[in-house]
Prior knowledge:
The complex is a heterodimer. In chain A, 18% of the residues lie in helices and 33% in strands. By secondary structure, chain A is α+β, with helices and mostly antiparallel strands. Chain A has a single domain (7-127), classed as CATH 2.40.50.100. Chain B is an alpha+beta fold. Chain B has helices at 11-16, 36-45, 65-72, 120-134, 158-162, 210-219, 227-236, 270-279; strands at residues 20-24, 27-32, 48-51, 58-61, 85-91, 97-107, 110-114, 140-143, 148-154, 178-183, 186-191, 200-206, 223-224, 284-290, 301-304, 307-318, 323-330, 340-345, 348-355. Chain B is globular.
Amino acid sequence: xxxxxxxxxxxxxxxxxxxxxxERALAGITVYAQDQLGDxxxxxxxxxxxxxxxxxxxxxxxxxxxVSDLFAPASGSVVEVNERLANEPELANEDPFGExxxxxxxxxxxxxxxxxxxAEEYETxxxxxx
Amino acid sequence: MTSPNARTxxxxxxxxxxxxxxxxxxxxxxxxxxxxxxxxxxVRTASGIFDVSHMGRVYISGExxxxxxxxxxxxxxxxxxxxxARYCLICNEAGGIIDDTIFYRxxxxxxxxxxxxxxxxxxxxxxxxxxxxxxxxxxxxDDLTNATALVAFQGPDTPGLVDGVFEGGxxxxxxxxxxxxxxxxxxxxxxxxxxxxxxxxxxVVGADQSVELWQTLQGLGAVPCGLGARDVLRLEAALPLHxxxxxxxxxxxxxxLERFVRFDKEYVGCEVLQAQNSRGTERRLIGLSLPGRSAPxxxxxxxxxxxxxxxxxxxxxxxxxxxxxxxxxxxxxxxEVGVTLDVDIRGRTAAAQVVEMPFYTRPRTAD
Lengths: 130, 367
């Protein structure tokens, strides 16, 4: 169920290099993450121009029941934030791998993505979490 | 892996419905099925069902049952008519709240008490202690929690549906009234009570009838609701949750629960409560409202001009009001409705206003 066109963090974020551009990538949270969170009501996201460092905290997500930190899946700078999430945070529940994306990032070190998990590795990883 | 937590007789039903199960008060309970927001909406606009069998069913009977309850409960017991229920507190000698509970008067000398799941053992021990010390041989205490099930059926549609399930016309019950009736030919007890701020019923049946009751109510359109929805609903209605707003270190006066406390009878903790009621307390429970969806959570600091003046006990985004709400304790000087305070939300300062509670009041229509 996790698409194999992207890489995954152990904190349940994904990052997908965009077609035809190896230095731009979309980032979001996984189906597993949104399922664990329950109904999402609010995102605290970085702003356009902010710089991210891989696996450091980049924001927060609040569901009805809890707050969780969001971690940057890669280093770089934020070039776009999914504005729809401000009014429709539920997009990240309904379609976390698509319409519910969080950020578009300009990667400072595309090779970093090799440190992240493949879809298959991530599936094995989440199956072991209980 | 074996779970150390108990399971209600509806456990398999919850799992089959796709519920996420979590430990709560020593039980493994559903926190959500379809999603908390949808479940809250169902209860506010139609009907929902909750398995609350994790809460206790403790029966107290005998010649001195009334005397025992007068001694351990803050509310008036002798004056409660048969077929009525009352909310009140069980306090220790310091006025701290051991548990909050609804109790029903089933007969002149027989009562049903509903302790919280996590406090059942403490409440039972407390009842036994005082029964032995002050009323030996005068009352009997029976814990029938495992022999029975408790289901809450809540929402504006419930009065129109309940008479099709139980005889005796429970739809005409007034709030906090209850009747002994039957479900599929076997004894059931239905009260006009709940923990959602919505109209509704709480139903006790034999444990072996819980699945049939659940399926019957679900068949009428009631949406299965978990602890997540229950928590949002009770917070919108500003109903306290033991372990959050109230515990053994807080008193009913601090928690603004004076209306459930009698000052004209003698009972455990009464001296402290009387003194606090006349002299005031060091802190008061308040309601806070904040624009937006980022909510204060338990234990966040409440500040005024940079100084910590209190602490949040519960908070959430309120889907019904589409704003964030919280309860918490502050110094009395900051407890007035209309005062603007700050909440430290993980390092961000958010302005919050002290507002009247409950946050949500159901529309009073024809019931």
